[in-house]
Amino acid sequence: MSVAITYVVAQGIANTPYDRSLSSALAILSHQLEWATDTHPPLLQISSPARIALRTRDNEGVFWKAQIVNGAVISGDEALPTPAMPSDFELDKIYFSDQTIGGYEVRLAYQWLANPNQLTREPDQQQRVLLMAAEGRENRVALASDIIKGVIIPQFLVLPVAALLIWFGLSRGVAPINALQKRLRNRKPDDLSTIEDHATPVEIAPLVNAMNDLLSRLSSSVDAQRRFVADAAHQLKTPLAGLRSQAELALKAAPNDPVADNLRKIVSGTVRATRLINQLLLMASAEHPDAIERPRLNATQLARDVTEQWVPEAMKRGIDLGFESDPDSAWVRGHSLLLTEALNNLIDNALRYAPSNSQVTVAVHASHHKVTLSVQDNGPGIDPADRERIFDRFFRVLGTQTHGSGLGLAIVKEIAQRHQAELTVQPAHPTQTPPGTRFALTLTAD
Ligand SMILES: Nc1ncnc2c1ncn2[C@@H]1O[C@H](COP(=O)(O)OP(=O)(O)O)[C@@H](O)[C@H]1O
Ligand SMILES: [Mg+2]
């Protein structure tokens, strides 16, 4: 666009001075004109100073022609074309047109003149003269192309510089927004804290404010929900404990009664319900966004204690529950109740889903920076498609026969997040069938 506009404008600019000099050529010619009298027709005799004036320095000079309107040529170059008289022509006005004469491009200036002494009479064609002056266009073309060169060549330099500056400015302007986007993407899913606005550009500050507003509303509604779950779970505990003790009392009173079997089912049902409620309570507290206290503790000791508590249950199920540690003590920063609960859930699952006569191993391995707590079984393993979803709340693999709520692994995941620990699940023996399962919780060593 710039090139096209420059081309048109440059031609206009180049025409102006040359047209002016053609006009003065016409003026010189008209001064040399002798008008018709009763005795002789109009005459155009060019004096030598006028000839010199008409011969411009850098071209062949000006061609001219003077002609009686609709009549004979008085003087000049016969080859010049005679322009048609426009219907609304004006005397003395100078007209311009571009013409080609024998392949040679010329600019033509012409005007119609009338004998000034005859103005009052009826127009007489003898007293009207068409005066023409023409010159080649090559000088104008050269000037126009000089102008175009002068304007366009710097543009080839200016445009890339401008593009570079725009790119630089835009990327600098957008950088804080990108940084904000990165910060938001890197957020933990449960992080509803407000976005600090010291780094946000002024333009998007209102947006950030609105987002902060939304976040704080969201976080108070999440809080309310969490409190509701915790309260409800807490309120349910007492009647359940009552129900359980009543059923146990009744069982004690009449252990051989026909309804004793139903009573036993009530007892085991309340045990499960109490466990679920405890899990819900733990979930609600583990989710709590306030930073938990994480004193320094010996992970090996903790894991050994937890494992010992599961030995009777393992024996009941005919499972060989083992414990390994390397080295003997591994220190981490952690919340002992929460870590105990996480291990409890993993061991509970391993004992629950592995067949009897199999092995379950709890292990603690410490390397330079990391401490890994793992629970491994040679049970049926977990289908790769389910491996992500088992950590969802209330998710249980389809066809799972034993009782459970589907909350256990969700709690483990929550606890892992609270400790900035990595939680992984893999087949224990990928090449064997059944592959077994190995859950590992990797904490930073302290
Ligand atoms: N060690 C394991 N071996 C096989 N499947 C497992 C194991 N641990 C968990 N799962 C599967 O993951 C599901 C979710 O476990 P969890 O969240 O503890 O809920 P729950 O044990 O109450 O069903 C279980 O239902 C079970 O299908
Ligand atoms: Mg479980």
Would you give an account of this structure?
- Strands 4-3-7-6-5 form a five-stranded antiparallel sheet.
- The longest helix has 49 residues.
- 47% of the residues lie in helices and 19% in strands.
- The chain is an alpha+beta fold and 446 residues long.
- Helix 4 runs antiparallel to helix 5, helix 5 packs parallel to helix 8 and helix 7 packs antiparallel against helix 8.
- The protein folds into three domains: 144 residues; 85 residues, Orthogonal Bundle (Helix Hairpins); 149 residues, Histidine kinase-like ATPase, C-terminal domain (Heat Shock Protein 90, 2-Layer Sandwich), CATH 3.30.565.10.
- The protein contains eight helices and 14 strands.
- The two termini are 68 Å apart.
Task: Compose a concise summary of this entry.
The chain is of the alpha+beta class. It contains 8 helices and 14 strands.
CATH architecture descriptor of the largest domain: 2-Layer Sandwich
The amount of beta strand, in percent, is: 15-25%
Uncertain ranges: none
What is the CATH class of the largest domain?
Answer: Alpha Beta
Mean pLDDT: 88
The biggest beta sheet reads: 5 strands, antiparallel
State the separation between the terminal residues, measured CA to CA: 68 Å
Number of helices: 8
Number of strands: 14
- Rounded radius of gyration (Å): 51 Å
Order of helices and strands: HEEHEEEEEHHHEHEEHEEHEE
Overall shape: it is rod-shaped
* Strand line-up in the sheet with most strands: 4-3-7-6-5
Question: Structurally, how many domains make up the residues?
Answer: 3
